[in-house]
Amino acid sequence: MKAIILAGGYATRLRPLTDGLSKCLLPVGGKPMVDWILERIREVEAIDDVHVVTNSRFAQDFKHWAMLNDGVTVHDDGTSSNDDRLGAVGDIAFTLERAEIDDDVLVVAGDNLFDYDLGGYVAFWRGKGVASAVAVHDVGDLGLASQYGIVEVAGDDRIVDFVEKPAEPPSTLAATATYIYHREHVPLVGQYLADGNAPDQSGSFIEWLQTREPVYAYRFSGSWLDIGDREQLLAADNLLRRAQGLPERSEYQLEI
């Protein structure tokens, strides 16, 4: 199994923090955000290669970071601004082609932090045969649910409907940006894009895929942090600082 960490965005809502540093390299709880994700990935014995896809603005920073992390390959998608970005699905397709991946793939967004066991997720997925999977979390609030992709699942946890950011959410069960693609489904990423579908949001591919192939929902509890703005960044920083025994902060700032 291969892992892909998505770090190709420009995080415009976090400017000026992200003018010169990728959101995924911003420190939370005393170390770069992406370190927390890599630690979780390292717990899955089946994963033998980790790929990080980023853009030309931040590629050199990630290459310096990767020098301290064996087994990580950094891919520069060649974009330089929010205007010419490939989008999450575009970056997945780019990495699959660049790394010549024809294996099962775990895809994790570089700004999603969680504390569940990825090994348990992989074990759940392996029990479903030729299928893909998405990790889902009950956000417990319909207003909050309207900001995410909301899934409907059958009794066997197979996804039977997926709605991206619904105005009136049918439930509070949200798809998070942690996916497992079966190796037989990996070529469908290219088909999805070739058919003219949106390359931006990673959940859009799952929305499309679940109408064609089996996709299952892995439910997890515990914390999940989708870091999109300054308020969420501060909340994540303080949550992880508490866990590390570090003092909390009233305002997020880069550590010098």
Jot down its keywords:
256 residues; alpha/beta; Spore Coat Polysaccharide Biosynthesis Protein SpsA, Chain A; 7-stranded mixed β-sheet; two-stranded antiparallel ribbon
Verbal overview:
The protein is of the alpha/beta class and 256 residues long. The chain has one domain: Spore Coat Polysaccharide Biosynthesis Protein SpsA, Chain A (Alpha-Beta Complex), CATH 3.90.550. Helix content is 28%, strand content 25%. The protein contains 8 helices and 13 strands. The strands form 4 sheets. Strands 5-4-1-6-11-8-12 form a 7-stranded mixed β-sheet, with helices on both faces.
Low-confidence stretches: none
**Backbone CA Rg:** 17 Å
Query: Could you estimate the helical fraction of the residues in percent?
Result: 25-40%
CATH class: Alpha Beta
Percentage of β-strand residues: 15-25%
Q: Give me the CATH superfamily.
A: Spore Coat Polysaccharide Biosynthesis Protein SpsA, Chain A
Distance between the termini: 37 Å
What is the total domain count? 1
The CATH topology, please? Spore Coat Polysaccharide Biosynthesis Protein SpsA, Chain A
Give a short account of the largest sheet.
7 strands, mixed
Average predicted local confidence, pLDDT: 93
